[in-house]
Amino acid sequence: MTAVRTLGQFIIERQNDFPYAKGELSRLLRDLAIAAKIVNREINKAGLVDILGEAGTTNVQGEGQKKLDVYANEQFIAALQSGGECCIVVSEENDEHIYIDSEISKDAKYIVAIDPLDGSSNIDVNVGVGTIFSIYRRKSTDGKATLDDVLQKGTEQVAAGYIIYGSSTMLVYTTGKGVNGFTLDPSIGEFCLSHPDMAIPKDGVIYSINEGYYTHFPDGVKKYIKYCQVEDKPTNRPYTSRYTGSMVADLHRNMIKGGIFIYPSTASSIKGKLRLVYECNPMAFIIEQAGGFASDGYKRILELDVKELHQRTPIFIGSENMVRKAEEFMASFS
Ligand code: AHM
Ligand code: MG
């Protein structure tokens, strides 16, 4: 019989991968995993709104119900606050970065950027949603960490991960030494190693993009979509189109099966929709660690300059050969 390896055990085993490891990053990952379990519990109750009360109302126990994205944001921030390893949190839900000022976090070295509940419009229809996180080490060595500590390039990430609240709940993360996936076993309340050394196929047959905006896409993207749809046996075309509206779910599927996810610029939103710091950079780090690639259509996502907390970027991410092909179309037509 093979023994179960929990996330907690795995993190401790891998701690020595870091020359400066003192257990701080391990504790930080543990704190995020605890918050993920609490958020997971709440998401699983989401279908019971008729019994428990709608968000914004008071439930039968007299407790106020919160919108799940607000709830998730509070849980992750609270876990980071009480863990003591994080000095600044950047969240999709907050306009400004949040300083964690407490006695236990006065020597904290890590900055966490987080999208607490990505794809939250899917909650109402019981389709998978996710959490995305990215971890940096602060660069400044004394005083309070600053905005410059936050605005680091994606290549500077020390860890990144996502949690997918799907038909089962999984936590997938990297510390720059491959990607490992853990499935939550609700009966023991632990994330257990289920997907060691995840690798994305170099080629795939799935393309994921919101084709409803087709007429607003740049020509390079329009031509690439047409390329995906053309019959060509040697390259397994036409490809299959799959899009849930939840980036974590779409990328998780494409990582396992092989595929490309695109959120390009559109006529009304020239930088696209997705945010660099807490959506694109962490996903790019994970996908590259799994052997894939992420681009803004021309340049590697992880090397983009970060100027603002909520900066947006177009993204082409997934199986390397598919992303390179899409870049060729962008170079030729856009
Ligand atoms: P959110 O952070 O407000 O949930 O938005 C991000 C989500 C992604 O998960 C998803 O890929 C995209 O928005 C879907 O957008 P659209 O409905 O424009 O296709
Ligand atoms: Mg989001």
TrEMBL record:
EC number: 3.1.3.11
Catalytic function, reaction form: beta-D-fructose 1,6-bisphosphate + H2O = beta-D-fructose 6-phosphate + phosphate
Cellular compartments annotated: Cytoplasm
Domain Fructose-1-6-bisphosphatase class 1 C-terminal residue range list: 200-330
Co-factor requirement: Mg(2+)
GO cellular component terms given for this protein: cytosol
Residue ranges constituting the Fructose-1-6-bisphosphatase class I N-terminal domain according to the UniProt record: 6-196
Positions with a binding annotation for substrate: D118, G119, S120, S121, N210, Y243, K273
One Gene Ontology biological process: fructose metabolic process
Cross-referenced InterPro entries: FBPase_C_dom (IPR044015), FBPase_class-1 (IPR000146), FBPase_N (IPR033391), FBPtase (IPR028343), Fructose_bisphosphatase_AS (IPR020548)
Alphabetized PROSITE patterns for the sequence: FBPASE
Binding-site residues for Mg(2+) 2, renumbered to this chain: D115, D118, E279
UniProt remark on cofactor binding: Binds 2 magnesium ions per subunit.
Designated name of the protein: Fructose-1,6-bisphosphatase class 1
Organism of this sequence: Mucilaginibacter mallensis
